[in-house]
Amino acid sequence: MKKALLRPDFWITIILFLAMIPAEQYEIFSGFENQLQGYRHILRHTANPEAYAFPEKDMVIVDTDEDFFSEYGSWPLQRKHIAEIVTNLQELGAKVVALDMLMDFPNGYGEDPILAEALGEKQNTMVVGQLNLVDEEIRGVTTATSVLQEATVAGYTNHTLIGNRLSRLRFYDQAVNEFKMWPWAVQALAMYWNVEPRLENNILYIGDKEIPLDHNGDLWLDYPLHKPGVTFLHEYAGITAAMVLNLYEGEIYGLEDLDEDEIYELEYWVKDKLVLVGDTTEVSHDIFSTPVGEIYGIEILADTIWTMMNGAPIRPASNGMEAAILICMMLFFLFIARLEKFNNPLFLTAIIGYLGISIYAYVYHGYVLSMSYIIPAMILSMIATNFFMFMAERQQKAFIKNAFSQYLSPSVIDVIVQDPSKLSLGGERREMTAYFSDVQKFSTISESLTPEELVSLLNEYLTEMCNLISSRAGTIDKFEGDAIIAFWGAPLGQPDHARLACFATIDMQKRLIEMRKNWREKGSPQLFARMGINSGPIVVGNMGSQQRMDYTIMGDTVNLAARLEGANKFYKTFTMISGNTYYGTDHLEGAENYVDARELDIVRVVGKKEPVLVFEVLDFKNKLSGPMTDVLQHYQKGLSCYKDHDYPIAIEHFRKALTFLENDGPCLTYIERCERFISEPPPGDWDGVYTHTEKG
Question: Which of 245, 271, 413, 524 gives 519 a disulfide partner, CB atoms 3.0 to 4.6 angstroms apart?
Answer without folding.
Answer: 524
